[in-house]
Amino acid sequence: MTTNKITTMLTRRRTTRWAAVAALAALAPLSLAACGGGGSAGSSGGDAGATVSSLKVLDYYTDEPGKTQIGDMLNACGTSIGVGSIEREAVPGPTLIQKVLQQASSKSLPDVLMLDNPDIQQIADTGALAPLGDFGLTADGYAPGPVAAATADGKLYGLQPGANTIAIFYRKDVLEKAGVKPPTTWDELRTAAKKLTVGKQYGFAFNATADYEGAWQFLPPMWTNGGDETDLKSPQVAQALQLWKDLVDDGSASKSVVNWKQSDVNDQFIAGKAAMMLNGPWQEPALDKAKVDYGVVPFPVNTAGQTSVAPLGGEAWTVPMTGDKARMAKAAELVKCMNSDDNQMLRAKQGGLVPTKLALASQFKSEVPAMAGFTDAVGQARARTGKLGAKWPDTAKTIYTGVQLVLTGQAAPADAMAKAGA
Amino acid sequence: MSATRTLAPGSVAPATGPAPAARRRSGSRRLEELSKVLFVVPAALAIVALFGYPVVKNVTMSFQDYGLKTFFTGEAPFVGLDNYVTVVSDAVFSKAVVNTALFTLGSIAGQFVLGMLLALFFHRSFPLSGVLRALFLLPWLLPLIVGSAAWRAIMEQDSGILNLTLERLGVVDTPVPWLTSPNVALLAVVLVNIWLGIPFNLTLLYSGLQDIPDELYEAGALDGATGWRAFWQITWPNLRPVVSVVLMLGVIYTLKVLDIILGLTQGGPANATQTIAIQSYQRSFVEFTFGEGAALSNILIVISLVFAVIYLRANRRQVDE
Question: Single GO molecular-function term (chain A) (predicted)?
């Protein structure tokens, strides 16, 4: 009798537990579906006349002071185009594209998206961006580099308010003491670097890491010498590789350049372990803070008659295909405002950039003489994706691998690019 | 198994009751069967959602042209074995396979031998042994990014503290190009990974040692088994189950190591530290060819599975013994 009672009690208690388990089991697929699906939000269309009270913006300015400066500029532009609130999100640079991909698959792309210029064509190629011409925006009067970077299949997808590039930074005091003038030719660069290599101080520092940064830093010698990304096996490219190799073989640049990022190069320069370096204007706040007395000159040329060509850097504002016409139109207005003459000048002064509108260049040079070395370089700057478009990343991989093969003695400059997969 | 047997009081109830009771009993048995199934359901769902789905997705992705476009259009055309052909015929693949093997073997050998020696050392407790043992766990507490950044500075060729120390001590005449020479970089990466793996080996082996009853050593000592003899005759056989777990987990953890190599060399210089895991990461998250990245990670999963099977086999043999 007692056993029976206990059994029924146990059974009853089990029944309630089963019920709970069954209920949970039934719920599980539902919650899973909620996580997965995504649905087709945002495809509702909406007519162009509807009012837009807020815009979503995504960028990668996570560090101060850029974070606040961009935020203020976005808010001011929002007010001027009659959009009450700007819902801005900033994610770290390396994760931006992954974030965009997540948003694309869940159909939650922002209204305005900032992209690093070499990424624009790759993203535009997927159909995620709206041609700015649809909203009446053009890039008339802009420097050719930023326009080439933002153009795919003849359509403009982004407007870039400010540009930067890389050039030679030198320590004025050190060069003066050694009686060395900033180099204007490759020969001068080699002799100057050799002469400046004393004790723990190298003459020159650059970045040759196994990543896109390493490829970007090889472009000044490659392009200046007439090399081209569409023909990496050319003698012009081999000569540029030879220059990098000579600088390291001479002992004028550390063998560690294969492992130095641009920030490491800057640290070496600040620490007095390099008299000259190849770097960009975004390092200037750190240099000023460390009270380094420096000057900037464009990358030297190999032979007389060549012009110094450096790669274009900087970010553009784009309008993703969210499907809501009214919001997209407002988003284009925001992009236009971020690129107004006043905002180009302001952003350039704040962010160590050069305005991309050619008409602003002379005014900028007179107002910010310290950036003169970069202003001319940006006018000549060439977009990495200008010729190859979405195929640039593959070529960049070949370039940095080739550079590393040469610098570690695995291949001669003449056949390094072939060995790297060109 | 034994738990269910003891926890089934209903089945041992006396069978002398009247007919209705018997019917009730068979009904309750069916309910019990159902309850068993239902108890498994949440775990099964979790496994399907958290392990099954990603693995299946990874396998299907590896047969698709799954790139940037897929995220916007949702289209991922089936391409058969193309992704596998692409990644295997890549010039760097064979190098990555060899590097993966060397990296795993070197790391495991170093971690295990050092971890074992330290575990034996700490097993004979001495003043401050607890504090020292805790200090050895530090690498585990340090975020990997921080650890690899610190090691990058330590191993810097010109001004790194490692070279300065070695030169001062007269061990080397010229600075060792730890991270800048293709001949040394893999060794450098292995050394850092050994440093990182010691706490794991030390902790597990140490706890294994503590489970061996002291009486065994006392009895062994009476029979003349001390020192090395005691280690091989008593410690090693008793530690074998722990050893096989440590080695198997170690191999699987090491095969997929990513952060240390990315932080130290990014696979360079000149591809000297490329492994299958690095290749997979770069194809997926740098080049955004997710199909090819998935193909590589499937290759890695198969290699891990081989080791898991070896482990299970070895374990079964032990149980049979």
Answer: maltose binding
Q: B157: distance to nearest CA of chain A, Å?
A: 6
Chain B hits for A3, Cβ within 8 Å: 9, 13-14
Instruction: For B118, list phi and psi in degrees, rounded to 5.
Output: -65, -40
Chain B residues whose CB is inside 8 A of the A105 CB are 71-72, 74
CB contact under 8 A, A6 and B14: no
pLDDT exceeds 80 at position A37: no
Provide the 10 A C-beta neighbour count for residue A53: 9
A233 & A352 share domain? no
- Structure confidence at residue A321 (pLDDT): 94
Nearest chain A alpha carbon to B27:
A11
Mean pLDDT of A154-169: 94
Residue A15 falls inside a structural domain: no
Shortest distance between the Cα of B253 and any Cα of chain A, in A, equals 25
Domain count, chain B: 1
Kindly state whether residue A11 falls inside one of the protein's structural domains: no
Number of domains observed in the structure of chain A: 2
- Full domain range(s) for residue A222: 167-310+389-419
Determine what percent of chain A is predicted with pLDDT higher than 90: 73
Tokens representing residue B149 in the block: 């950044």
B33 part of a folded domain: no
**Kind plus residue range of the DSSP H or E element containing A168:** strand A167-171
Asked whether residue A279 falls in the same domain as residue A337, the answer is: no
Tell me if A373 is assigned to some domain. yes
Residues of chain A with Cβ-Cβ distance to B272 below 8 Å are: 408
CB within 8 Å: A254 and B17: no
Instruction: Confirm whether B108 is domain-assigned.
Output: yes
pLDDT at A254: 95
Residue B269's domain comprises 82-320
CATH number of domain containing A359 = 3.40.190.10
Token digits of residue A391:
């195929």
d(C-alpha A260, C-alpha A268), whole Å? 9
CA distances from B47 to A365, B42, B50, B57 (A): 63, 9, 5, 14
Spatial neighbors of A283 by CB under 8 A, at least 6 apart, are A169, A262, A263, A266
**Averaged pLDDT in 10-residue chunks for chain B of 321 residues:** 42 49 70 89 92 92 92 89 94 94 96 94 86 86 88 90 92 91 95 93 93 90 86 90 91 91 91 94 92 95 91 75 57
Q: Which of A5-9, A392-396, A415-419 has the lowest mean pLDDT?
A: A5-9
pLDDT of residue B3: 40
Which residue in chain B has the smallest CA separation from A393?
B287
* B203 is a domain residue: yes
Q: Residue A260 has which token pair? A: 């130095």
- Please report, as a single letter, which amino acid is at residue A174: V
In this predicted model, what pLDDT tens digit does every residue of A270-304 receive, in sequence order?
999 999 999 999 898 889 999 999 999 999 999 99
Residue A125 lies in a domain: yes
